[in-house]
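Human: We require from you a protein record containing the residue sequence and its fold in token form, and nothing else.

Assistant:
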Amino acid sequence: MRVSAFNPGAPNLQRGRRVYLRGNRYTVLRARPDRDTWILQLGGLTGRNAAEQFAGEIVEAAEADVRRNDADSYFIHEIIGLRVVTDEGRDLGIVTEVLQTGANDVYVATLDGRELLIPAVAEVVHAIDPVAGLLRITPLPGMLDESQ
């Protein structure tokens, strides 16, 4: 099952917390990460056959019921909609999508119909501030194609 949350520092589902699958509420009995997914044991689902019907489903949980590994963890919904600016204050658009590539996430910023792909790595992304609505970056050389 997938957790619709953004990494770095993927969030942890806590034992005893409520989650929702297809609109039905369950309680987390056990949870552990397995590569890019989670393996969950949920109250009310007894046996492997009962659980297999939910394989690949998105697990929904209240933000308060999901623990972040560190202060630098964000959910996708916290990233989408942020205004992207350079350290010098140049406006690069709004984050419209987060691509989860496996190696690192990539933010898609859109401005005037153009898309800019921003690797979510510390070398590029310097500050994420959902309260201020900003994502501050230092573009890599050649990242901003000035010829267009």
